[in-house]
Amino acid sequence: MMESVLSEDLYRNPHRLSHCGKTISFNCKRAPGTNDNEGSELIFCSLSFEREGNTFLKAADGAAVISRKRLAHVDIVKCKSVTDAQKRATAPCVLVIKKSEKRSSFQYSLLTLSSSNRLEPCVEFKLPYQMKGAVYILQGPTVLWRHEGGVLYTSPQAEGVRQVPIHFSHCVVGELPLHKGQVFVLGLQKLPEESTSQTLGYFVEDGQVFDGSVILPHLYISITQCILVVAADRVDGVLKCDVVAATSNRLLVYFENGVVKDVCQLPFEQPENIQVVNTGRYGSLFAVSFCEGHVCTIWKETFQIAALWSSVTSIHVDDFLGCGTDQMLLVFKDRIIALEEFLITDLCGISFSHGQDTDAPKTSPPPSENYLLTLKALESRLQSGLTVLQELQREVTVKESVLRQSVKALTDVVSEREPVLTQHEQEGLIALWDSDDESKNEALDDKIHDIPAVSSKPRIDKLWHRTTEGRMVVGVILTTDRSAPVTNVSLSILTDAGQCSRPAVIQTQSQVFWLPAACSSPSSSSSSSFSASTFPEPPAKKSKQHNAISTNDLNACRVAVTAVTKLTPLLNSGRVKCHVMLHYIQTPDAFSFMSNQRPVVLHCGQVALDIQNNLHTELLKTPQLIADEVREDFLSLLAVLDHWVFHIDSPEYSLGDINGWIQKRVGCKKIEVSPQYLLLNSSGPSALMLLNWHQITPFQGELHVHSSQLQMFQFLDSLLAYLPESCSIQPLKGAGGKGASKMFALALEKELVSLREYASLLLCEEDEEKLKEKCFGYKETPDAGSVEGLQKCRAMCQRDLERSNMKLSPLVDVGQYRRLIQSMSKIQLNGDLAALLDIQFSPLMCCSGFHG
Amino acid sequence: MYQPPSLLEKWSQENNELVNKCKQQEAGGGAVSQDHRQSSLRWCSSEFHKLLRKIQGIPPHVDHSQLELAVVYNTCVCFTAQSQFSEAELLLKEATERVLQVTGNNADTSDPLVLWRAGLKSAGNTALHPHVLYLLCLQWALWLAKCQLENIGELQEQMSSLCEIVCDGVGDGSPSEAKGRLSKSPLLVMEPKRLTELLQICTSIAQGAEKLNEGRSSEALSDLQAASALPATRALVAYTHLLSGSCLAHMNRPQMALQCYKKALETDSRCVCALYRSMLIYRQLGNTQAEIQALRLLHSTLMLPPATEPVLGGIQPLSPSLLLSSQSLSRLLSVPSALSVLYSLALKCVLSGRVTEGVEHYLDLLAALHSEDQHAVDAEVSVLPRMPELYLEAGTALLFTRRPADCMAFCNEVISTTLELVPEKVVLEEPEEGIGGDARGLSVEGEDKVAMLLWAAAAYLVQGHCHAHLKDWKQAVTHYTRCINLLVKVHLKNRDFQPQIPAADVNVKHGKDLCTLQRMKGLSLAWRGISFTQMDQLREALRDLQLSLQAFPDYTGAGLWCGEVLWRLGRKHEAAACWEKTWSLTTQTSVEKLPLYLQDPQSGPLLDSVELRLRIQELGLT
Fold first, then answer.
1. pLDDT of res. A199
2. Which among A1-5, A146-150, A536-540 has the top mean pLDDT?
3. Which residues contact A378 (CB under 8 A, 6 or more apart)?
4. A20: how many CB neighbours lie within 10 A of its CB?
5. Is this prediction's pTM over 0.90?
6. Which residues between 761 and 820 in chain A have a beta carbon less than 8 angstroms from any beta carbon of chain B?
7. What is the fold, at CATH topology level, of the domain defined by A454-520+550-608?
8. Which whole-number Å values give the CA distances from B221 to A65, A777, B144, B158, B321, in the listed order?
9. Which residue blocks in B146-252 are alpha helix, DSSP H?
10. Does the pLDDT of residue A47 top 60, yes or no?
11. DSSP type of residue A683
12. Among residues A115, A27, A96, A4, which one has the least CA distance to residue A338?
């Protein structure tokens, strides 16, 4: 009874391997016979697949007595088909253990099955312990196992049990598929002096140590459960290899020369072994077997899961059908002499199954899930194909567009046509137009010395000056009369006559600010004055009109005018006192650029140069203070610093709170005297910056920057990171570009209106005479009933016709026509000037430079 | 010896290449179709996911964490963009857990809020902190997309600090930023700043809609107005204005609401909803001309081909529509279809006296209904009146414009389709008092039959009006009679129904059909009576008019004509009394609520009230 149960048990789930298209099973059993002294016997049975019967038939079997001792317990540890180094052929190997009664020593023997179907002992060794954990039978045949942190191995060549001389904290064992089998051990070696560990590899055969990271990256060693070297090559002594490793994180990772190439999520835990299945032209598969009988196959090319099985007792890869490519043999129910339930497949058309219900799915546990997974695998394969296709399509479109462009260029060349440049290319070619209308202004300037009697002069409220870094700023605050606004305001500085007979004019640059007291937004305009000649001669003031003081004039009451000049000429001449002169044109018509009004010069007072009177000390200390001092500082600062205006436009994405963003920057303070301005003083006075953000709509705004150029660029750079991508920043040349375009529009309108008015005046005068004539002639409409009336009607009709013909090409008086043309040309001249100004101020693209 | 590149370097490079590829695909996507975008997005997400699996294939490591979190971010953005919320959420959870592992903390909790708090705390001031914040942004996006606003509220504190760090930290030139730029930090698919901005405004919009839904209008209003200054696309800014307008409308400030709707339209001309809401406000204010104008604009806007979204500087993978999926919001943003707008326009025009215009719109509507493919029409039918009703209304409008021939053709069409289906006898059940007029679904089939009958009868009635208009009294009598014959097939089944007093407030309760029936009875009888009067068959006329008054006492036309007939019959005092009684009737059933075809025809013989009063005076004198 006992015997039968035992034998039955023994026959179940034997150790099985595949060899040369056959599958061989091994098992241990008590030797038959009544004699109790009989020991244990190792039996094997070789089966080959019969296609017709769809079953495995016995090809050979045999047995070998392992132990004659009755009480000795014999067990199979592992079996595998490996290359025999001496015979240079693969041979099935089986490792058996004989446990003695006392369990103090364990005898292991590795047997090979010879071609004549005889079991021959190959290596025999004794150990004082039983092997635990993974045991490897590798080429050689080599038996390798771990014990107490060491890696031990033995082979016919090694003569006895040897230990790898390196102490590994983790290790991975594999073989390189080189012509000469190379069994290697990879592991982490703790370096004593450092806390990090190093990946080392060790070739078992020749004891060579190498850098293990060429096979497996450092971080993977500790989590790798099993590996398979797919390909290996030595190029100039450098090892190159492709490796597949299954990790404890349920991943199958493909490495190429130690670099992660691809990963695949595995559906099961605890991978045990990886095999490669070469299915011929369909590519290769990796078959990963897991603890608890799960099997997962993965396509090598796509690295996607191909199929899954569960409850598999063993999986073997060989050419069972003898067709030249590999198939997998999945054994579900095994007995030593027969396979009760199996499946042979390569997932590429070959499929033989036995013992499995054809209707029922081939895998027992959750079958629907398996289908799902298979389906998913197929889908992923499809998808990867699709991706490749899409990539190709993309490439095709790119190539097509290149082709199209080149064909176009070619036809352009052939037909000698000018190639059409894109907007962008053209923009790079824009000429920087910056010539000034000197001739006009010179005529105007020549009259400056004739000071006409002006009824209401601007009143000088305050005169101040500041010095900074070799420059002096002189400022004047004046009040003008609303009824008599001033334009073209500028300041000039004259040195005190002193001993010299003639005071000299010093080169200055003027700027005008409308003070907030009078006008809500402090717009500024600047004009530079330049002169080298002395006083009795007309000081040829060559003014370059950046922006004539224009339409705002009417509203203005208080104006601040500043002039900046270099300090050195003043100091050189030893002068400490200077006269400040104000130049302006008083005009009732804000429009007239060409007005014949003469410039007026007004003496504002004297400044005594004081080098100690440093700029913006007050402002820097307390920008929140409202005091004249601070305001003067602020105005001086505006005069000294370079000035840029940027139009920021983001058509699709609102700009958000730019003011808030500026205020959050380091060292940003609000200036109370002019709350629109923000003072940015991040690092010292040389890096001062004044900013004014004026939001027009949520989608556009204007940014005024007063700073050095470098600072401005730095600021813009960081601003760009904040602004939306679709946003465009355009520099407006000088301030008040808007004013210029507005003026241009007004000028055009005026031109149009005047033309209409003059023309209609011309025609009306003529018409009126005829009207009088007509009024006398035909007061009443004649009655159309009578013959006489009808004739009258006809006559009237005729006359009307003539008159309307006349109207179509009227004759006008020559004198009147001349007057019309004259006045029109005057008005058109104004329009031209406005257009000129508008072009100067209109936004230029960034590439054409900020400073024109 | 050959030294393989470090994993970190390799993976960073891979990530950056992927991000660049994604951005290229998106940037070049101006012309590509939605399908192509989707497929490229799918490709990106699978590639990122693969990379992430590689990175997460090894135990968490401090050096790798920054890259890992960046890849998690990229993967999640792609997943979220494809509405794969659960996958994205799972990745976020795993990432947070790995962050905790790296920093040596442990949080054995599944509550995402607790997990996030722990994650943020453990990342603390390390280099990981911004990356953990970026992931929190995505969590925020997921909550928003799944309308879990309460979670966002729970982490309000963290979110606002997040906004500060992510948004304001950009471009302030601080040393940390400069360092960040130098050390090659992994690229991201979507700038966290843009994502945060998007999230901020979308959250404000979603919360605003929610509050508005809960009736907390003023609270919602202040939030929305604050949100309107946030940086965002035109469409989103327009939404804030639109919702502000809705809040104001709720708070009974129609003019201010109109201002807001105007602002919304100015901001984004594609914001049709603002136009629709303005129309509703005009309707509420009783400004018919403006309402018609708005309806016309709305219709022409809806008929425009759908405007393509403008291409920003590279389309962002996460679209606002993904984040604004809450029901209360979609209800606020819904706009009726072009056809139903056209119908409202047509009806409104006819009712407000712009009949010719109205007729044109009716004809357009019918043409559209016939020409459009059946599938599209089926979707429309639920909001539009039934086809026969449309025909009847169009016919009536035609009659108003004195085109009786066309009108009759329309009515014939209705009769030909419905008459065969009219049953011999219909029982109209009175709905129970408590249930009111809503309980119409008792038997769909029976109701359909009643509707058929009423339509056929109405068609005859309108045809009668046509003949009356043409002064073909005989024909008119015939058609009115047909109408009456159909109407008497309806049997009322109710015990306590008193047809004598169908006062205005009772009308609602008694169901629409009943009201229609009574009104139609009154009209057809009265007009047959009037026709008889014209043919001098005064007795028949008197009978009909009196019956009409019984069926529908409110109809002043019947009352006046009844008096007239009495007068002509010589019963002058009775006539006077009848007139007086009619004039004393003040209850004017709201004409607007009635179907167009049940209104008093605007043509036909008229009685001058002034003249009648004179007659009474004379009678009194004599």
1. 81
2. A146-150
3. none
4. 16
5. no
6. none
7. Immunoglobulin-like (2.60.40)
8. 94, 74, 20, 24, 22
9. 149-154, 156-163, 175-182, 192-214, 217-227, 234-250
10. yes
11. S
12. A27
Alpha carbon separation from B33 to B37, B190, B376 (Å, rounded):
6, 21, 23
Q: What is the dihedral of CA B554, B557, B559, B562, to 10 degrees?
A: -150
The mean pLDDT value of chain B amounts to 79
Tokens representing residue A114 in the block: 């010879």
A104-113, A324-333, A560-569, B600-609: least confidently modelled range: B600-609
CB contact under 8 A, B232 and A654: yes
Q: Please indicate whether, in this complex, the C-beta atoms of B232 and A262 are within 8 angstroms of each other.
A: no
Determine contact, residues A305/A264, Cβ cutoff 8 Å.
Answer: yes
> Rounded to the nearest 5 degrees, what angle is found at the Cα of A832, between the Cα atoms of A826 and A837?
135
Q: From the candidates A263, A266, A304, A381, which should be mutated to test the interface with B, based on the most B CB atoms within 10 A?
A: A263
pLDDT of A117 reads 84
Q: How far apart are CA A632 and CA A467, in angstroms?
A: 12
Which residues of chain B have a CB within 8 Å of the CB of A386? 39
Rg of chain A over all Cα atoms, to the nearest angstrom:
51
Output the 3-class SS for B258-314.
HHHHHHHHHHCCCCHHHHHHHHHHHHHHCCHHHHHHHHHHHHHHHHCCCCCCCCCCC
User: How far is the C-alpha of A618 from the C-alpha of A628, rounded, in Å?
Assistant: 10
Distance (Å) from the alpha carbon of B567 to chain A's nearest alpha carbon:
53
Contacts of A154 (CB under 8 A, 6+ apart): A123, A125, A142, A143, A160, A161, A162
Only one residue has tokens 């073997």, namely A316
Peptide bond before A141: cis, by omega within 30 degrees of 0? Answer: yes
CA atoms within 13 A on the CB side of B349: 27
pLDDT at position B470 is 84
Q: Tell me the average pLDDT of chain A.
A: 74
Question: d(Cα B454, Cα B461) in Å, to the nearest integer?
Answer: 10
- The rounded Cα A832 to chain-centroid distance in angstroms is 47
* Interface probe, candidates B3, B7, B82, chain A, greatest A C-beta count within 10 A: B7
Q: Which residue has the tokens 């003059």?
A: A758
Confidence of residue B315 (pLDDT cuts 50, 70, 90): low
pLDDT of A407 > 80? The answer is yes
- CA dist., res. A674 & res. A577, Å (int): 31
pLDDT of residue B4 exceeding 70, the answer is no
A331: tokens are: 């054994």
> How far is A54 from A327, CA to CA, in rounded Å?
15
pLDDT the model gives residue A556: 46
Tell me if B312 and A220 make a contact (CB, 8 A cut-off).
no
Q: How confident is the model at residue A585 (pLDDT cuts 50, 70, 90)?
A: confident
CB contact under 8 A, A654 and B314: no
Q: What pLDDT sits at residue B592?
A: 54
B412 has a pLDDT exceeding 60: yes
Centroid of chain to Cα A245: 34
pLDDT at B511: 66
Q: Which of B4, B171, B231 has the CB atom closest to A214's CB atom? A: B4
Residues 621-660 of chain A with CB under 8 A from chain B are 651-657
Judging contacts by C-beta atoms under 8 Å, the chain B residues touching residue A657 are: 229-231
CATH of A641-732 among 1.10.150, 3.30.310, 3.40.50, 2.60.40 = 3.30.310
Asked if B533 contacts B565 with a C-beta cutoff of 8 angstroms, the reply is yes
- A367-383 pLDDT per residue, tens: 455 677 778 888 888 88
Taking an 8 Å cut-off on Cβ atoms, the answer to whether A665 and B172 are in contact is yes
Angle, helices B34-56 vs A367-414, to 10°: value is 120
- In angstroms, rounded to a whole number, what is the distance separating the alpha carbons of residues B462 and A97? 108
